[in-house]
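Quick one: structure tokens for this chain, please?
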Amino acid sequence: MDIVLIAGLWLDGSAWDDVLPALEQLGHRGIPVTLPGQGDGTTSATYDDQAAAVVAAVDAAEGAPYVVGHSAACTLAWVAADRRPDGITGVALIGGFPTTEGGAYADFFEPTGDGVPFPGWEPFAGPDSDDMSPELKASVAAGSHPVPVGVTRGIVHWTDEARHDVPLTLVCPEFSPAQAREWIASGDVPELADATRLELVDLDSGHWPMYTQPAALAAIIDEATRR
């Protein structure tokens, strides 16, 4: 099966390099997306540009692909469910949640000029990054890309209620399924509260399992495609 892979803020398609061979061994073709403004050489991309790139990747895939989003890009993966609910097999979200209707895509950090650079590892100290070696952290930071403000402050809109019926797997790395259930029940994540085919899966890792647990992550994705 074709699997569209979308990494979160500051990352390009190479974030999935260690996951691709594991997916291939399981019979899948991984399609990593380098988002506009995050490694494609442009600096003026918008959220709508990134959403369009995800839909284009879905449309170019063979058959009905499976779509995987990581961190902030969980919103972009859910865009595929919103715009192509009958054209995808399902969605997996890794360590993140779709933005609530009318909210900003990922306005979490202050920009420097027209972009939001990687802020360093201090904001992610603890469970997010405890499983990453100093060498890995240095490598990821060195390969990071400032995200255009037009992306981070773009406003998210949902259009098709059919998205709620798309098979959805929430991969819980630095938080537990129990914590996720609490957040959903409290109303903090309305998109997941309305999902009718939601499954929660635990993964013993930090926030970036594509680097630290690529084989385990590929196995979870493979299992999700079989639902």
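The mean pLDDT is 97.
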